[in-house]
Design goal:
By secondary structure, this protein is of the alpha/beta class. The chain has one domain (2-135). It is built from 5 helices and 5 strands. It has helices at 10-20, 33-40, 49-61, 77-96, 116-126, and strands at residues 2-4, 25-29, 65-67, 102-106, 131-135. The chain has a 3-stranded parallel sheet with strand order 1-2-3. Helix 1 links the parallel strand 1 and strand 2. The N and C termini lie far apart (32 Å).
């Protein structure tokens, strides 16, 4: 099972591959999906909107969409969502008797305390999850 958010880039790519492989997907969003799309999908370069809608329509239909209900203006909403994703993955893995691990696709460098990818790694590491990092550095 894949538990993640649905931001453009690695999240949406992973959701697409998981769908192709028949892997169950659970998406955790900080607030309503339309608001999340505005702040993490449609406002980014590229045409991610169609991919987002296609994935979330199916995930919502399967009742695997979790909306946490945070305010969009809450500066901690995304960090708290990271924690919720880790907790959800651990809860499901315990329930199913399986090991949960964390996968991060990034350049390997924290941009400081506001870096949400580094925050996710810290959350997962703090809960004892095995970590896999895929570095996006180009030669």
């Amino acid at each position: 099972m894949l538990v993640c958010s649905a931001a453009c880039g690695a999240d949406l790519l992973a959701l697409g591959v998981a769908s192709e492989l028949g892997i169950r997907r659970r998406v955790v969003l900080p607030f309503a999906r339309t608001l999340f799309c505005e702040s993490s999908v449609a406002d980014r370069p590229g045409d991610w909107g169609e991919c987002y809608d296609r994935a979330l329509n199916k995930i919502e239909q399967q009742q695997d969409l979790v909306i946490l209900g945070y305010e969009q203006a809450d500066p901690a909403a995304y960090a708290r969502t990271n924690a919720a994703i880790v907790d959800e993955a651990l809860r499901i893995s315990k329930q199913e008797g399986r090991l949960a691990g964390a996968l991060v696709v990034w350049d390997g460098k924290s941009r400081g305390k506001e870096d949400l990818t580094a925050h996710f790694l810290d959350e997962a590491r703090g809960k004892g999850m095995p970590l896999t990092e895929i570095l996006t550095l180009m030669c």
